Amino acid sequence: MIIVDTALQQRLAQGRPVRVAMVGAGYMGRGIAMQILGAMPGMRLVAIANRTVAKAESVYRDLGVAQVRRVATAAELDAAIAANEYAVTDDPNVLCHASGVEAVIETTCDFESGAQVTLEAITHGKHVVLMNAEVDSTVGCILKVYADRNGVVYTYTDGDEPGVAMNLYRLVASIGCKPVLMGQIKGFLDHYRNPETQRGFAEKHKQKPAMVASYADGSKLAIESAILGNATGFKPAKRGMHGHRCAHVNDLLKHFSVDDFRNGGLVDYALGSEPHTGGAFVVGHNDQPMQREYLAYFKLGPGPLYMFYQPFHLPHLQLPLSVARAVLFKDATITPSGAPVCDAITIAKRDLKAGETLDGMGGFMCYGMAESYEVSSTRQLLPMVLSVDCLLKRDIPKDGEISYHDVVLPQGRLCDRLRQEQTEYFAAAPARAAGA
Questions:
Q1: Which tens digit of pLDDT belongs to each residue from 359-416?
Q2: Contacts of 400 (CB under 8 A, 6+ apart)
Q3: What is the SS3 assignment for 242?
Q4: E-strand spans in 260-402?
Q5: Angle at alpha carbon of residue 138, lines to 160 and 33, rounded to 5°
Q6: What is the Cα–Cα distance from 423 to 427, expressed in whole angstroms?
């Protein structure tokens, strides 16, 4: 949104910059801090929470901040904000409770602590911007309900593929084309990649091997597709989506016809296609003769299906835009539109034996696949994000689906409770709408 820069300049001129706090001081957290401190006039990163406080301090100091105050309570953080000082803490609840914080960024990719922080921030009146696809894909629909009740914005971030795709979706709709297909440009996919096969790449790029493995094995693709689906109502045409291999993303149009969208829009991905810098796409439909004439003139093809794409994604550079949109305009970059329609389910990466404990996203045991929520809920399939630390009750063959009936869940996880609440809430939604 181009108007964001003007609105931030106004907040700067008024002497009241947008006050945002961040949970997580890892690779992406450092990049976000760099962007806010160095390139976002009108926004102030007032505090960082991290389990290791010294790591949060080093983020500030590496970016030229000489004075950093350690705080342990919301009152101490508010005092630091009033004194125009930057603060760090090991307790994310401090950020959620401080009255001087307008929005909270969650960057950890830990689904349990991320859900806890998100719910705490929402219930204390803070807008929440997630760089935590694990949380949003699994329990985002119920968290959006909580956000609506508390009058705050709950959103996934701009700059990551779901946010990029949603921006395109809105653009395509605004020019009179109906979005019918959306997804990301995926360079590589091998469901059987694991932390060991990806270790070299991870070390080269200062990443965690399991995180890189979750990109390579398709798990991250699955959960990000679920985010797209739950925001738009789009579903995968089949389990795992088509993932057509294309020389260029434009060639994806050769694999679809208007008839493919008679029952609604679809989420999918283009595999191995140029441009190889990643990014996202949206296909729009327009069958109006005069409009097709104009679109052909501007070299978008004969139609009636048209490809729109952004050939890059820059999460840490663009996330602050989501913060500004939430705080200044109450506008979510991408957020669930209602009941879940898309899910990321758990599939065995190898033959699994009863008594084994699943190692979760990007591990050696499972990978995620996009599936319609109707199938997932009917078959009681285990969400990929929630699979970690689950104890298998029976053998599962390689490439076999894993259901709730096959595992013993860990005790006491908030995400499991939220998932159950989400299921019950939306199952009862028709009755509430009818006034029952």
A1: 999 999 999 999 999 999 999 999 999 999 999 999 999 999 999 999 999 999 999 9
A2: 347, 348
A3: coil
A4: 266-271, 280-285, 305-310, 342-348, 366-372, 391-392
A5: 35
A6: 6
User: By C-alpha distance, which of 151, 167, 156 is closest to 309?
Assistant: 167
3-class SS letters over 206-238: CCCHHHHHHHHCCHHHHHHHHHHHHHHCCEECC
Measured CA to CA, the distance from residue 16 to residue 328 in angstroms comes to 12
Which single residue is written with the structure tokens 């159950």? Answer: 420
**Structure tokens given for 214:** 């979750």
CA-based nearest residue to 286, from 297, 298, 302:
302
pLDDT digits over 174-229, tens only?
A: 999 999 999 999 999 999 999 999 999 989 988 899 999 999 999 999 999 999 99
Contact call for residues 357 and 333 (beta carbons, < 8 A): no
- Residues 110 and 133 sit within 8 Å (Cβ to Cβ): no
Give the strand pairing for 43-49 and 86-89: parallel
* Burial class of residue 82, CB neighbours in 10 A (0-12, 13-18, 19+): exposed
Distance (Å, whole) CA 208 – CA 106: 18
Q: How far apart are CA 132 and CA 108, in angstroms?
A: 7
Please tell me the distance from the alpha carbon of residue 104 to that of residue 135, in angstroms, as a whole number.
15
3-state secondary structure 365-389: CEEEEEEEHHHHHHCCECECHHHCC
CA–CA dist 339, 433 (Å, integer) = 13
Q: What is the DSSP string of 4-67?
A: HHHHHHHHHHTT--EEEEEE--SHHHHHHHHHHHHH-TTEEEEEEE-SSHHHHHHHHHHTT---
Q: What is the largest CA-CA distance in the chain?
A: 64
Contact 339/428 with Cβ under 8 angstroms? no
Q: What is the DSSP letter of 305?
A: E
Q: For residue 144, which of 122, 162, 111, 166 has the smallest C-alpha distance?
A: 122
Residue 24 backbone class (left: φ over 0; alpha: ψ -120 to 50; beta: rest): left
How far apart CA 44 and CA 40 sit, in angstroms, is: 8
**Where are the strands (E) in 65-134, listed by range?**
68-70, 86-89, 103-106, 127-130
- Read off the pTM: 0.96
Partner residues linked to 179 by β-bridges: 284
147: buried, middle or exposed (CB in 10 Å: 19+, 13-18, 0-12)?
Answer: buried
